[in-house]
Design goal:
The protein is α+β, with helices and mostly antiparallel strands. The chain contains four helices and six strands; from the N terminus they run H-E-E-E-H-E-H-E-E-H.
Length: 149
Amino acid sequence: MLRILTGGAGCTDALVAVENGVIIGHAMASDATGRDGHRTEIGVVVADGRRGMGVGSALMRCLISRAQARGATTLVMEVLAENRQVITMITDHWPVTYQDQSGAYLTIHARLPQPGDREWPELQAPRPAGAERSRAAEELLGEQLASVR
């Protein structure tokens, strides 16, 4: 199915985050070569009740790590233009090289860290203003990380 969805490319990853046997997030990355070199196009979806708890960040870390191992130099994501939380997460962690808005969507191209690069911010789950993550959320994040590795 992945080969069909990605045009037969062999550089594709699909991940799910599971809690108590229920999928609470899923993500997919597909590599391609274009004007910006070897890029990985990533899509991430997290269940409404699990947003802001690190599920998407854990999925992103895993996909990006695998893409970098394949030589990807650019991250491409299509995001709803109104989704300020995700757009901020992207721009806070990677230098945006190009972005384009088409209708309700913003397509963002960002440079991925390369061997020898210094000081790239670690991708972390956003913390609610003035609040600490609960122990249950920390445990859930640990389970999700184990699920996506």
